[in-house]
């Protein structure tokens, strides 16, 4: 079958393309901006890429058009597709019907930490010999690809009881092991599916095990309030079978409210200060912690990541893997070799004692926890931040009041206010009390940070967009200055 994917260079749709190619389909796609790293990954797979969304890109017509959720009415390719009555489907629906059906799905949902937790869970199952399939909203360094189908089914692994203890039989006493569905780990996004399907993507995935990592207000362009997001999360809860497992953040009151709407699946909770699964930090920066379950310490994890938020992500992944039959000791050991996804506090360079990081920042809570983790690691060293408010919610000003407090651990902030930003960024800078300044271009932002940076500093570029390659431009300028 020949598939044309509209919006192919997004991380999710690029993953769809990789899976379709692995299934043996002829795959091509188009996007407004064909850019790395996804374009590089797709070209390696032999997938033809077309720039822009001209109607001609769908000529001759493919057997099926897979539509990304960034596509809207009025787009030339979409209008041609509808006028010509081409067969079309959303990415999540294609994934659910073509790849996930018949597999045991482990889904990772939450406002924050989805990509890291999904990558962690995939790596834990890989280390356990499961060869899982996965689709991640990024490229996990341990795998080098954002998506794969995974290995063949193996004998049924032990499931886990409601109290988390492994069972030798998942359904029925005295049953012999039978061929099991292969594991597939999916990053389960609450954003809408497509212009013709306004449900959250994750309702298409039908997981057996689902992580509910956290829940805050976000995506102000499609959700009027947090209650609307909670309803979508409850739609996900409704799809998890009673033979499955919900792994839920015990410290999140909004998730407790979701479960109070109705829950038909065994629940295990996790948290630093509460929950069935706990982490006791043994390093202030979160780079090591003891994992406990039901009050019993199971082992100490040491890894390259830091921050309380990442310890929580690890707990969620360990608990979900345990529900899938992986021993906690195996999961804890896997953390030592875990390498995170690009742009999650990625150290891109170090020149003259100045460390340069690229971080996918999309929400004030994520910004605050990321900087708090870095502060715990670097102590009194200066932290300089280059900030671009890039997500739809940020650009709409939905998080404006929370931005300055989220930057409390930064010693200096250079804030990019593009001309099209519709709200006054001056109040953010004023609230920073002399630690912030506004610039109108990436060139000016890089120059400003260069003028401030000195040996021992940690410079963090925070944006969930391309940021015009600002971190690497800054690093290159640093190297030349040296």
TrEMBL record:
InterPro entries: Mpl, Mur-like_cat_sf, Mur_ligase_C, Mur_ligase_C_dom_sf, Mur_ligase_cen, Mur_ligase_N, MurCDEF_pg_biosynth. Residues 3-99 form the Mur ligase N-terminal catalytic domain. Its EC number is 6.3.2.45. Keywords: ATP-binding, Cell cycle, Cell division, Cell shape, Cell wall biogenesis/degradation, Ligase, Magnesium, Nucleotide-binding, Peptidoglycan synthesis. Its cofactor is Mg(2+). Residues 108-321 form the Mur ligase central domain. Residues 154-178 are annotated as: Disordered. It catalyses: UDP-N-acetyl-alpha-D-muramate + L-alanyl-gamma-D-glutamyl-meso-2,6-diaminopimelate + ATP = UDP-N-acetyl-alpha-D-muramoyl-L-alanyl-gamma-D-glutamyl-meso-2,6-diaminopimelate + ADP + phosphate + H(+). Pathway: Cell wall biogenesis; peptidoglycan recycling. One of its GO terms (biological process) is peptidoglycan turnover. Residues 343-465 form the Mur ligase C-terminal domain. ATP binds at residues 110-116. GO terms for molecular function: ATP binding; UDP-N-acetylmuramate-L-alanyl-gamma-D-glutamyl-meso-2,6-diaminoheptanedioate ligase activity. NCBIfam families: mpl. Belongs to the MurCDEF family. Mpl subfamily. Reutilizes the intact tripeptide L-alanyl-gamma-D-glutamyl-meso-diaminopimelate by linking it to UDP-N-acetylmuramate. This is UDP-N-acetylmuramate--L-alanyl-gamma-D-glutamyl-meso-2,6-diaminoheptandioate ligase. It comes from Dokdonella fugitiva. The gene is mpl.
